[in-house]
Amino acid sequence: MSELTHDATSRTVDTPRGPLHYHEAGDGPPLLLLHGSGPGVSGWANFGANLPVFAAHFRTLVLDFPGFGKSYPSEGNPMFAALPAALDFLDALSLDAVPVVGNSMGGNVAARLAAGHPDRVSRLVTIGGVGLPLFSAAPPEGIKLLVQFVQEPTRERLQAWMESMVYDTAILTDEFVEMRWKAASAPDALADLGRLFNAGSLAAMRDVRTGAADQARMLTSIQAPTLLTIGRDDRVTPLDNALLPMRLIPRCELHVFHDCGHWAMMERKNEFEDVVLSYLLRDRKASGGR
């Protein structure tokens, strides 16, 4: 396999709503990876380091949602544009049921995709982003710091937000922070992020009862086998958020990474890849496949 760099794996596909950017690597059955939200985020920023491991087993597709990375900008709240874009992407590549791995916002989108379009998701893996806070305060610390950055986008506030995303801040190298700062500083990126995280979104999060019935209904509608993964020290989607989906999703398993924050795929990279690959390959192993 050739070196899986950003540029070597970069692809664009046209859809009815606009061009979607993605990264592609590997052969075999398709696997869709959906990134989270936040300053400077993209599919590559979330999953670039994991791509070689997944590409050894799957045709791995890492999508940029509208308003993020190099996909078309979002006219409204990027959260509302994400699910239609994921469906457009699957249609554009003529893909039917695929396993989907979603981080944070991407986990929420993946869950709604599985609930509303069960014929498109064969297995579901989430990294935070799904559920409701049962015991922890809302909004959580990481979201408050994110809104502070949107209101005053400085490198110092970006650093503070990034520190809330991890258990061990040693992984926040100067190079990593600088990469996110450059991407987050783009005017269009800040505008799209501001539509998603603002004073209004904080106010909505304070009343966890709002939308709770719809959330429960969505979770019970997920028929795909589901693996929830979460960091024990997540300050964006605290651990108690996983309890409701663990109970309500019919075919659900939960894996908790100790000494880990919101970015399990980065902070506990090797363990994350082992756990998720084992789950995704379970059907293949049961049938005697490679």
UniProtKB/TrEMBL annotation:
Disordered, as annotated region: 1-22
Q: Which domain of life is it from?
A: Bacteria
Q: Please report the stretch or stretches of sequence annotated as the AB hydrolase-1 domain.
A: 29-268
One of the record's GO molecular function terms: hydrolase activity
Q: Does the keyword Cell inner membrane apply?
A: no
- Which Gene3D superfamilies would you find in this protein's record? alpha/beta hydrolase (3.40.50.1820)
- Asked if the record carries the keyword Hydrolase, the reply is yes
- Keywords, alphabetical: Hydrolase
Pfam families, alphabetized: Abhydrolase_1
This one is known as Alpha/beta fold hydrolase
